[in-house]
Amino acid sequence: MSNSRKFRLTAAAVATVSAAAAVVLAGTGSGAAAVGGSAACGALFDDFHYASHTDGLLSQHGWQVRSGGGGPGVPGARWAPEGITFPTSGGDKVLQLAATTNGSAAGTTQTEIMQPDRRFFEGTYAARIRFTDAPASGPDGDRINQTFFTISPLRYNNDPIYSELDFSEYLPNGGWGEAGPVNFQTSWHTYTPDPWYAENKSNSQRRSIDGWHSVVATVSGGHIRYYIDGALVADHDRSGPFDVYPRQDMSLNFNQWFIDLTQHSSGTSTYLEQADWVYYAKNQVLTPEAAVAQAASYRSSGVRYIDGTGNC
Description:
The chain is mainly beta. Helices cover about 5% and strands about 40% of the residues. It has two helices and 19 strands. The chain has helices at about 55-60, 290-300, and strands at about 45, 65, 80, 85, 90, 90-95, 95-100, 110-120, 125-130, 145-150, 165-170, 180-190, 195-205, 210-220, 225-230, 230-235, 250-260, 270-280, 305.
């Protein structure tokens, strides 16, 4: 979400011991799922089977599509609800976020979809995301940020309970002093927007991750562990000059936005980020393999959406 990276932490190999229980739930005609039994306790799963950004099921399922202006991103750009669509990819519907620019703030649109009800804290987060290196149309080179994260409001500068976990911030064309492509995982203590000051721990992979990837994170016992395709890429704990472990419940978000417009060359460029599904297991530490398997179990059982986060 933010515009700087100050603290780097080297990841260490960690063995996570946990497994998901098999859950079989029957879908309803509306695309929701019947919640039954203790197995559904704390689970949120969405397969993104929606007609458009105006589909009433989105709000029924807790999603909000952002509109208007404001940060992060280019000042004067617009957050465009119509940039959220649900095309078919690989035979199944996906969430698609489109961000477009002609090089001017007035000609720039960004996209965000969120679960704004702040009920996300400890547990396992997972999503299957398609990151893209090149625009779907127009010239390449813009400093775009393709993301999946949780966040709480910053009440004031250096808010001591501010919490944010960036599971992936992919910059195919660089930004923040990086040439790109680069993917960040960042855990936040706090920050001040102006003048910029940040306290966080961040890891990065300086390579392309163009294409589909499983993005998983576990939050438990003072550690935030980040995984890409099952491989541990970061482990952030409470050690060091500040504590980056979250201190309050957060919202769950996907967005795609432009860091700046300095690298735009000509014409209009449109960049796409897609998500096949999202899964959250409240207060459970699952291996990346178990989290992905649980999502697959929901899908094979015809479950398009389930929310048991309030059941326990």
